[in-house]
Amino acid sequence: MKDFKAGYQVKQGYYKSFQPTPINKNWEVAEMEVFQLLSKADRQLGRLDMYSEYVNIDLFVSMHIAKEATQSSKIEGTQTNIEEAFLKKEEVAFEKRDDWEEVQNYILAMNEAVKMLHTLPFSSRLIKQTHKILLQGVRGELKMPGEYRSSQNWIGGASINDAVFIPPVHTSINELMSDIEKFANDELNPLPDLLKIALIHYQFETIHPFLDGNGRVGRLLITLYLVSKGILKQPILYLSDFFERNRTLYYDNLMRARTHNDLTQWYKFFLAGIIETAQNGVKTFDGILQLQKITEEKIRNLGVRSHDAQKVIDYLYTKLVIDAGIVGKITEKSPASVYKLITLLEELQIIKEVTGSQRGRLYIFKDYLELFN
Asked: Which CATH architecture has domain 31-284?
């Protein structure tokens, strides 16, 4: 990528914005280390995708989206635990409900975006609709949900005067986003897909096309692109956890590409994230398969209650959180039998009570949750 030119500064009165160069062109990658990482990333993604056929994928995807939502939102300052994402609004502490709603929007945005991929290409329309869902009814709802910004924004600093980075002027956003769209959908472009989405993510974060939610949308786009290209059958890979744990490197590598025209370092960081995250995903799939065996062994000795226990566990593999009312519906047993079964499952350490109250008690599939923590 030795010929890469990130862009140039444009004087805008008392400040300078950064105008990125278009990315829809043919690229040449000469660095052998990038190719080695790319090969390893492709192998790990293949393993991860294969595992997705052997477990209940719906809860796995829900857990990953919830984890992605909490981690991605944590980067933005929102504090919600992964288990809280599976509670109803009224079950969440009042002071945490705004954060909970932002996480729910993230989950909804990802789910709806994956559905939209069946009828829409990876496009501005898809990106805008995802952004609209993300910001609906929460703290960013006054910041033009679903619309590209019509004013200048900045990154870092208390004001534009001490900003760390000032994205391009708003009048160039449509053209720049159109360039991303063409690049993403150019099947004849020889650049490998993982490098394409690395470049798209970098360019999107550089453009910062929305007034709010750019980071969250930019991270969602990575997963959406991998699904849209058939690299993953299901949305089972999320980089927010890697970006959060390496937050300084994440921002430094994005900025270095802009200031030093060094796209190679960004590629290496991004591919390292793909490899590590895919490997962790495979470990989680392995853990789920082991958990299934262990849990089956635990309930085998429950006698006449083992059948009802299996019904509850089957439900937990789809929803994670349960209460006495749900257990009653699943087993069609009396309240006394329901509470006895719950007590047995607690004693076997399959479920754990999470409210600490006497009424409205909620139970979580403890070991499954731990696989994602």
From this structure: Orthogonal Bundle (1.10)
